[in-house]
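Recap slide: Amino acid/amide ABC transporter substrate-binding protein, HAAT family, sequence and predicted structure.
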Amino acid sequence: MRLRNLARVAAVGAAIALAATGCSSGGDDDGDTTASGDKACGLTIAFVGAQTGGEAALGINISNGAQLAVDQYNEKNADCKVTLKKFDSEGKPEKASTVVPEVVQDEKIVGVVGPAFSGETKATGPTFEEAGLPIITASATNPALAENGWKIFHRILGNDAAQGPQAALYIKNDLKASKVYVVDDASEYGKGLSDIVKKDLGSVVVGSDTVQDGQTDFSAVVTKIKSSGATALFYGGYYDEAGLLRKQLTQAGGQAITLIAGDGVKDTKFVDGAGTAAAEGTIVTCPCLPPEKAPGTFFEDYKKAFNAEPSTYSAEAFDAATVFLDGIADGKSTRADMLEFVKAYDKQGITKQVKFDAKGEVADKGVWAYKFEGGKIVALKEIK
């Protein structure tokens, strides 16, 4: 998780100085920041996350949710539109570290939805902090992100300190598994979540192992899982590797071993890797509201806009973008003013009451259990 290009942050000073000028009096049609009533105009919100690569489906879910919020805002404010600018991190800390300096140097950007994943958030947080650019992640769940002292950091969902214990609770109370094997993908997110689950499961953990991003042959770990006598497998990581692991475990005769995974596997791309039959019955946990339960017309609006149903963190991203849009509507045209607006925000969103504590965390940390059935993801219940 090395930080790169931090030297380029020196150039941010000039960008911030430009942004701090706020709304000018009489902009033109070239996109300059101007004022329209009390609203700030000509401003941009950024999205940072995977748009290509192995985890692109998760990133696109999120960027689409933010895009819907921006599009609906622009429909109501045609004279004072906001731009959503997307920066592709490919879901990798190294890539994110090369694109984030471009984000902070764009003086029109006053807020960021993202970064999407925990590793890239850890790698780029110091850059955002140096630039004073507020971020609201809709999906990065590693608890340690809130412990860095970053004033710019906000998270619109519960972290893995909530998800991990609830996943363990589901394994013990609902699956009643007495022998559990735990595997992680060595990522900031996957290892962090798996470590919490292992701690909460305690003596029922009969073994653990680590795989790597991009790994395709899981024969060695499959052998260990089967020989352990485990009836359940918890996986901390993303859907690409999880799908292949599930497929190979089933092919090796481990079809009776139930797979439970975190939110990084909550995408139908998991089925592409595992196959519909092998994926059947897999449980995933997520600190996210089932999008069909979002109030109002969000679900249908998303389907109409993107010809697909909203999925993991689409609704949370909609809420994150809405916080920044509300700030722009309130005339916040500088990063400093937007940061203060976000810190004081207290409003009902479509997923929860959005209000951040001093560390940037929200109070509502609900965790849901979902199940793969017939190739689709079905909400089971909120784990309590």
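Residues 1-31 have pLDDT under 50 and may be disordered.
The first strand starts at residue 34 and ends at 36.
(End of recap.)
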